[in-house]
């Protein structure tokens, strides 16, 4: 039997990457562009300390890095359900590959997990200690069970190999430059209102979500990566809205005349969701600053430009 060292590991943890002492940040983005767009990276292409690689995380990646932000995964229900086997491979094999990379080069790795690990929660608001209420064989399982396995892999690599891990459980986040046809509710309602189409509220419309603006989320992720806590830590905005309230807010902002249409919902849609962010406040000194009413107009402006719908004078 392998002898255990004082930290409980059979082998010492990997040496931290020497890149930690580097004077400059360099960024390597790896994306297979399934839901992402090169257009969003246009301003960085050609920058001497930026590199873009078309890469699928279900294949191993050999690069030298000291921090890994592991975000790769389709996140909108329409896209993650499109090829569920690929989604679960991305979560399981993709996370294994990123952890293997972290182990080889001694990097710290952050996983963007999700509030979907709480499933259709029976506790409200959700605290990190809640184990969730997830259907393991439903149409959302490729994503929510996939992320649960990804969290398990992160902790097993941490305990078994001493890898430095960070886990964020992100709650519904939105912002400019989202794919216009992403399919998630905020982008759908804004695009529909701008196109003068009915806002498609999925029944019953009383289900709730808590929406976080993207710049707040990025700030939270950077704090988590830089701090001493493995997580999991909830990152999200506790302001909670029903989908009907969201539709009314978007109407008021963009076009009070657009109708709201109740359409069929999809199976296992969580009925309520709101993060308890006590941990993020205490451990990261983080809380979101941008309310939904402040964030929506910023997204509207970007969608107007891309859809070519100028604001009426
Ligand atoms: N936005 C949210 O509300 C939210 C909530 C919880 C968790 N998350 C997580 O945050 C991460 C980013 O989400 P997002 O909202 O920006 O979604 P997104 O779909 O806009 O971005 C996901 C990115 O991953 C890439 N990708 C997908 N599969 C890949 C693969 N196999 N190999 C390489 N790249 C791949 C896509 O092309 C895209 O650029 C995801 O892991 C998601 O699960 C997001
Ligand atoms: O925050 C999270 O953890 C997860 O949130 C999302 O899941 P979901 O909340 O279902 O996202 P949406 O598709 O935006 O749906 C939100 C609510 O809006 C409703 N909806 C959606 C789209 C639409 O056109 N109309 C509408 O009423 C849905 O029924 C649902 O109740 C995505 O699955 C993931 O990006 C993410 O991991």
UniProtKB/TrEMBL annotation:
GO terms for biological process: D-xylose metabolic process; UDP-D-xylose biosynthetic process. The keyword Transmembrane helix does not apply. The keyword Cytoplasm applies. One of its GO terms (molecular function) is NAD+ binding. It catalyses: UDP-alpha-D-glucuronate + H(+) = UDP-alpha-D-xylose + CO2. Residues 32-297 form the NAD(P)-binding domain. Keywords: Cytoplasm, Decarboxylase, Lyase, NAD. It holds the Pfam family GDP_Man_Dehyd. It is found in: Cytoplasm. It comes from the Eukaryota. Catalyzes the NAD-dependent decarboxylation of UDP-glucuronic acid to UDP-xylose. Necessary for the biosynthesis of the core tetrasaccharide in glycosaminoglycan biosynthesis. Belongs to the NAD(P)-dependent epimerase/dehydratase family. UDP-glucuronic acid decarboxylase subfamily. This is UDP-glucuronate decarboxylase. It comes from Cocos nucifera (Coconut palm).
